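Appendix C: a fully annotated inverse folding record. The material below is reproduced so that readers can follow the format used throughout the book. The structure is listed first as tokens, followed by the designed sequence.
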């Protein structure tokens, strides 16, 4: 199946080739290999917890690289505690609310994670992260501690509260992702690589985070319900299902699809803010760091929209598609073209029978029009048919040579 995917998507194969040529084999220029001791171990933790984030963080400007690596690890530690369903509620809330103080406690570690927590090892050796965090410039420390405090209190709140209304949904996403956008934007400005205004326009930063988090929450519905929790707001799902379990039941599939598409529509509303935020970023490595997750998110929403598989399993974009998106996230024009392409896919899947049809059409039409008006060449040209024709020729040639080995000679 993977081979067929490559054949049917030749541009992804090309993107994968260039990614491998650029990133392997590693040499002495790799940022992780330029550091030693505890900081090198922190980059090891980064790769252990997220290879995709590790790659983009290690390509950041040296003024930001270590600070954002540690910011990510601290929030990953906080998130690991929040996700661990084996920690008693009162103890979990205490840990979450005090985590901004814990990151200043020399030698602190946590060895009580549940057996299924994939990032438990990070907390077992968290003293390493603390030691390096305390070596950061004070300005960076203040920002990271402040975001950790606000996020911890927000997470603690939602260990008891449920996501009922759309206001709850936006608030929860703010605590777990919007605040990340706040922190990153403030770090960008603190470094001097971006204008002071980037760290002040926090509504845009929040919206960037919400777009990512809402995409993940929408995609993860099957996994979350099976784990006994649900982050889809009741204000949406209760219109189409009696219980959260009913959402992923095949017997309720048609109604649940309406709920899914409303969740996707809710996320799509953040696209204008995403474009405006990226437009203010000037430093190339910072831009790419911000843009890659956003292009991955629009691709994921396009995959999830009107896709019944979301209710049965955890769908993901193809690896080759992800590599192509990485290569196309270098500048604003390229990112806009990516968004335009996936908006067209959503448009093609928009069903007039769906309750969200009109709203989806309105959002997509406006986003496409704004993008087309901002690009010098106007609306991007869709080359899908040409790529598919090339793929068919390649596939036919491969079949021919497979059946006629003598033709190779």
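Designed amino acids, in order:
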């Amino acid at each position: 199946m993977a081979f067929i995917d490559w054949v049917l998507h030749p541009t992804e194969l090309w993107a994968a080739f260039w990614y491998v040529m650029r990133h392997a084999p590693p040499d002495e220029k790799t940022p992780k290999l330029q550091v030693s001791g505890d900081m090198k171990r922190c980059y090891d933790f980064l790769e252990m917890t997220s290879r995709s984030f590790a790659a983009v963080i290690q390509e950041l400007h040296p003024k930001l690289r270590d600070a954002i690596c540690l910011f990510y690890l601290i929030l990953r530690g906080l998130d690991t505690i929040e996700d661990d369903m084996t920690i008693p509620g009162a103890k979990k809330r205490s840990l979450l609310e005090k985590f901004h103080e814990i990151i200043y406690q020399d030698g602190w570690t946590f060895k009580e994670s549940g057996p299924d927590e994939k990032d438990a090892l990070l907390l077992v050796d968290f003293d390493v992260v603390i030691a390096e965090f305390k070596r950061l410039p004070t300005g960076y420390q203040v920002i990271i501690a402040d975001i950790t405090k606000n996020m911890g209190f927000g997470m603690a709140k939602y260990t008891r509260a449920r996501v009922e209304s759309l206001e709850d949904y936006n608030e929860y996403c703010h605590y777990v992702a919007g605040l990340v956008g706040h922190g990153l934007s403030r770090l960008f400005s603190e470094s001097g690589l971006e204008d002071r205004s980037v760290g002040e326009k926090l509504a845009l930063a929040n919206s960037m985070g919400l777009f990512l988090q809402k995409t993940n929450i929408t995609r993860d519905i099957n996994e979350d319900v099976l784990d006994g929790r649900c982050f889809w707001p009741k204000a949406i799902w209760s219109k189409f299902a009696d219980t959260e379990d009913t959402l992923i039941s095949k017997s309720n599939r048609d109604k649940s699809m309406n709920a899914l598409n409303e969740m996707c529509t809710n996320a799509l509303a953040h696209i204008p803010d995403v474009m405006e935020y990226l437009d203010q970023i000037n430093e190339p490595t910072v831009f790419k760091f911000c843009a890659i997750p956003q292009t991955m998110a629009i691709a994921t929403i396009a995959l999830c929209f009107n896709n019944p598989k979301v209710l049965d399993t955890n769908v993901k974009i193809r690896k080759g598609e992800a590599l192509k998106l990485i290569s196309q996230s270098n500048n604003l024009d390229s990112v806009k073209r990516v968004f335009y392409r996936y908006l067209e896919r959503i448009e093609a899947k928009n069903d007039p029978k769906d309750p969200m049809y009109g709203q989806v059409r309105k959002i997509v039409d406006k986003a496409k029009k704004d993008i087309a008006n901002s690009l010098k060449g106007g609306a991007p040209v869709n080359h899908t048919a040409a790529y598919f024709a090339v793929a068919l020729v390649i596939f036919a040639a491969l079949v021919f040579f497979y059946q006629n080995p003598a033709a190779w000679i």
